[in-house]
Amino acid sequence: MEKIQNLFINGEWTKPSSEEYLDKYNPTTGELYGKFASASREDVDRSIDSAYDAQKKWERLTSVERSKYLYKLIDLISQDREYLTNILMDEVGKPRVEAEEEVDGVLDQLQYYAEFARKITGDVVEGTKPERIIYQYKVPYGVVLAITPWNFPAAMVARKIGPALISGNTVIIKPSSDTPFVAGWIVEKVRQAGFPPGTVNLITGKGSVIGDYMTSHKKISVITLTGETKTGVQIMKSSSSIMAKLILELGGKAPFIVWKDADLELAARVLMWAKYWNSGQSCIAAERLYVHEDVYDKFINLFIEKTKTLRIGDPRTNDMGPLINSGQLSKVSSFVESAVSEGAKIVFGGGKPQLPDKFSKGFFYMPTILTRVKQNMKIFREEIFGPVIGAMKVSDDFDEVIDLANDSDYGLASYLFTKDISLAMKASREIKFGELYINMPGPEASQGYHTGFRMSGQAGENSKYGVEEYVKVKNVYIDYSKDSTKGEVIPPYT
Ligand SMILES: NC(=O)C1=CN([C@@H]2O[C@H](COP(=O)(O)OP(=O)(O)OC[C@H]3O[C@@H](n4cnc5c(N)ncnc54)[C@H](OP(=O)(O)O)[C@@H]3O)[C@@H](O)[C@H]2O)C=CC1
Ligand SMILES: O=C(O)[C@H](O)CO
């Protein structure tokens, strides 16, 4: 039975004014999965007006009252988590284990933010005279536009609505057109949780069509995006007319460094996660492999042997599913072709896997490992976002390795495997990435600040810093003396 999903505006599911719908295909089978509303500018206006009107009342609730809605939402998602797990497997092609992990992540993040009730505090500082004082409050911005990606479509919704709502903002969610149904399911749980109408709205439709209109709308105060760097750049341009606060979590190009003293078994196991988690479609995926010359051959062979054990196919019963769409499949494939044309060598994978006929239209790509990769090759410069990694042998010069790691337009996550504490501390200081994982896998924790250097974005998400991104510090100066200007000459007001 084909799914049909409408817009969610002012507390109700509603048809798009254009009555137009877009198609969503199942990445595992390539078959039509459902149709979802293509919002018009009129629909966008209605959703933003609704959020704007609702925000005034939402802000006036106490944070404890707001948190109760989040706790109710957590309960409703928990009770029906198997359904969300299934949509994640269907819409994204995520293997079951990863889909369940993402549901855990949704619940953990919503819980983490609900617990901020009564904990977003300000300061009181002394005034310019004994009987003057300055109160510094943290107040919500207003209406938040949350633009979410397809790779973690449920977790990214939670990561944005959680801090926005607990701090008194209202939200319009614009999910990826590759995963509209995951977002829609969460919004239905928001409705069932009884959030006041307009607190959370859902607008679906192509970002390339309605994106600029939404991100330049006068009533939007904050725009939070997880997506491609070029989308972030476009949003910076379109939102400049409204000077919206931007929270941009963009592309990554994580270096994965294996030093000569590394625990190679551990490093190889972590690389299996860092490269093939979500078929490599993660902003913190390992994208550049740097291995010390002394252990290079041994580690590459160890990683190839582990990669051979990956079961690829139906996400319900395998370790790795398909890529999200045909565009991503050709993009990933082109990275391998360009690397080979520049002199790299495929030592494993490098094409579509042999699968039963029913998956022949699925967007599958083999886990692929290349050697003889050079720093200036496209495969080391641009975000692949697939189960492909190039490897480069590095010398015993750790400074050079740090320079190679930092030589990237991106600066989100990075990985280092060494037993040498002085090298680890040196990397902690000199690696210019928002995250450095030492002798361990990711992903980022709800209490960790997920942020990046350079073209990986600005501001950040999660942790107490992530909550602070949704509030503005307001300063109130009070003079409580009987005559605040007694005996005081204040030019030119004498
Ligand atoms: N760092 C990360 O976590 C992520 C990085 N990426 C990178 O982006 C590449 C493409 O993935 P994709 O999902 O298409 O990323 P996009 O950046 O295109 O999409 C992310 C979100 O932005 C929306 N969007 C697109 N264009 C605009 C616009 N002009 N104004 C407002 N919103 C817009 C999309 O809507 P719509 O789907 O309707 O276009 C989607 O909701 C990947 O190959 C990967 O390299 C992708 C996802 C996450
Ligand atoms: O956006 C992503 O890919 C997530 O932050 C990875 O955990």
Automatic annotation (TrEMBL):
Tell me the keywords, alphabetical order: Oxidoreductase
Pfam families membership: Aldedh (PF00171)
Q: Where is the active site?
A: 249
PROSITE patterns hit by this protein: ALDEHYDE_DEHYDR_CYS, ALDEHYDE_DEHYDR_GLU
Answer yes or no on keyword Disulfide bond: no
> Which Gene Ontology biological process is one annotated for this entry?
gamma-aminobutyric acid catabolic process
Domain named Aldehyde dehydrogenase: residues: 13-476
Can the keyword Oxidoreductase be found in this entry's annotation? yes
Q: Superkingdom of the source?
A: Archaea
One of the entry's Gene Ontology molecular-function terms is: succinate-semialdehyde dehydrogenase (NAD+) activity
Assembly and binders:
Homotetramer.
Family note: Belongs to the aldehyde dehydrogenase family.
- Protein name listed in UniProt: Aldehyde dehydrogenase
UniProt source species:
Candidatus Acidianus copahuensis
Q: What is the lineage of its organism?
A: Archaea, Thermoproteota, Thermoprotei, Sulfolobales, Sulfolobaceae
